[in-house]
C-alpha cells in the first residue's frame, strides 16, 4: 500500500507540473488573441479578465494530453531510477504498479467532471456574455424555459421578442408563436400572434396571424388586423438559432439533464447535449486508458528500450485515440451513431486496447 501511495504521489506531482505549464502557455496565447481582438476597445485589465475566464475551459479540454504526458514522465523516471526493477523484484507486476497512478487518474477525472466542469461552464458563459457586450451589434438571444422558447432579434435599431410553445427539430418552424416588437428607445409598439411562423431566407412567414398596434392606439383590439399569411423581416437563420443554444460545454453537467428535457419539450433535437453528457461521464475511463497507453510503451527498463521512440509512439497512439473519440462524438451529434455508443465505445475500446498493450509488453 505504501508503494501504491508513493507511485500515486509521484504521478500527481508530474500531472500538476505539466498542467501548470500548459495552463501558462494557454494563458499567454489567449492573451495575445484577446489583445488582438479587443485591445482597441477595452482596457488591458478587462483583457486579462477575459483571458482568465477562458483559462479553465482551455485547461479542461487538454486533460487527456496532460494525463498521458504525466504518465510518460512517471514511467520514464521510475525506469531510469530502476525503481520499477526493484518493484518487480519484490513480486509486484508492472500492472500492479499502475494501481496508484490509475487511482489518481480516476480521482482527477471525478473532480474534473463534478467540480471543474461547472466552473468551466460558468466562466465560459461569463466570457461569452462579456464578448457579446464588448462586440454588441443588436444581435439575438435565445433561451428555453418551462413557458416555451424565447427569442430576441434585433433589426434596424428595433428589438422583437418572440415566444413559441414549441418548434420543429431543425428550428425552422415555430408553433403557437407571438411577436412583440419594440420601437427604438421606446416601449412595445406591436404585438402579433400566429398559429405558426416559418423561417425563410428573407424573414418569418406567419400563418393565421393577428396583429395589434400598441403605440398611441387607445383601443388596440378595434385596430387589430388578421392575416392568412404575414411576412416579417428578420436577420436570423436556422443555423443561427441553433448556435445560440451555445456549446454543451457551457452548461454545468448537473443542469444538463433538465436542459435536455427542456430542449426536447420545445421540439428541438438534444442529440448534441446528450452526446456531450455521456462523453463527460465516460471521461474517467478515457483518462485511465491514457495512463495505460503511456505505461505500455515506457515502463520497460531504460537499458532495454529506445526511450525517444517509445515516447513518440505513446503520444501518437494517445492522439490517435483522442481523435477517434472526437470523431465518434461528431458522428453521434450528426445522428449517424447512437449517442450512447458514440460516447462510451471509444473510451472503453481505448481502455481495452491499452490494457492489452500493457499485458503484452509488461506481462507477456
From TrEMBL:
This protein's record includes keyword Cell membrane: yes
Source organism, top-level taxon: Bacteria
Subcellular location: Cell membrane
GO biological process: lipopolysaccharide transport; transmembrane transport
Membrane topology per record: Multi-pass membrane protein
Segments forming a coiled coil: none
Record Pfam families: LptF_LptG
Protein known as: LPS export ABC transporter permease LptG
Amino acid at each position: 500500500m505504501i508503494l501504491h501511495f508513493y507511485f500515486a504521489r509521484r504521478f500527481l506531482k508530474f500531472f500538476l507540473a505539466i498542467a501548470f505549464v500548459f495552463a501558462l502557455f494557454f494563458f499567454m496565447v489567449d492573451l495575445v488573441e484577446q489583445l488582438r481582438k479587443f485591445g482597441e476597445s477595452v482596457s488591458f485589465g478587462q483583457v486579462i479578465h477575459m483571458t482568465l475566464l477562458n483559462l479553465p475551459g482551455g485547461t479542461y479540454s487538454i486533460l487527456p494530453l496532460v494525463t498521458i504526458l504525466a504518465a510518460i514522465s512517471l514511467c520514464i523516471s521510475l525506469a531510469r531510477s530502476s525503481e520499477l526493477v526493484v518493484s518487480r523484484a519484490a513480486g509486484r507486476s508492472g500492472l500492479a504498479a499502475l494501481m496508484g497512478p490509475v487511482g489518481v487518474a480516476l480521482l482527477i477525472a471525478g473532480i474534473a467532471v463534478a467540480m471543474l466542469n461547472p466552473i468551466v461552464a460558468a466562466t465560459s458563459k461569463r466570457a461569452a456574455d462579456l464578448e457579446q457586450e464588448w462586440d454588441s451589434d443588436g444581435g439575438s438571444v435565445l433561451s428555453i424555459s418551462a413557458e416555451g422558447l424565447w427569442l430576441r432579434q434585433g433589426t434596424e435599431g428595433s428589438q422583437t421578442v418572440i415566444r413559441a410553445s414549441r418548434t420543429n427539430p431543425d428550428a425552422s418552424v415555430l408553433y403557437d408563436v407571438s411577436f412583440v416588437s419594440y420601437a427604438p428607445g421606446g416601449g412595445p409598439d406591436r404585438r402579433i400572434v400566429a398559429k405558426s411562423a416559418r423561417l425563410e431566407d428573407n424573414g418569418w412567414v406567419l400563418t393565421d396571424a393577428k396583429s395589434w398596434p400598441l403605440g398611441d392606439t387607445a383601443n388596440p383590439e378595434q385596430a387589430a388586423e388578421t392575416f392568412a399569411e404575414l411576412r416579417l423581416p428578420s436577420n436570423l437563420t436556422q443555423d443561427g438559432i441553433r448556435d445560440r443554444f451555445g456549446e454543451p460545454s457551457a452548461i454545468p453537467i448537473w443542469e444538463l439533464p433538465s436542459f435536455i428535457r427542456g430542449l426536447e419539450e420545445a421540439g428541438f433535437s438534444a442529440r448534441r447535449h446528450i452526446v456531450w453528457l455521456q462523453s463527460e461521464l465516460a471521461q474517467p475511463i478515457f483518462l485511465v486508458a491514457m495512463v495505460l497507453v503511456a505505461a505500455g510503451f515506457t515502463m520497460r527498463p531504460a537499458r532495454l528500450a529506445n526511450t525517444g521512440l517509445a515516447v513518440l509512439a505513446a503520444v501518437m497512439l494517445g492522439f490517435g485515440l483522442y481523435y477517434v473519440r472526437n470523431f465518434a462524438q461528431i458522428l453521434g451529434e450528426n445522428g449517424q451513431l447512437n449517442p450512447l455508443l458514440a460516447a462510451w465505445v471509444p473510451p472503453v475500446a481505448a481502455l481495452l486496447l491499452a490494457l492489452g498493450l500493457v499485458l503484452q509488453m509488461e506481462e507477456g
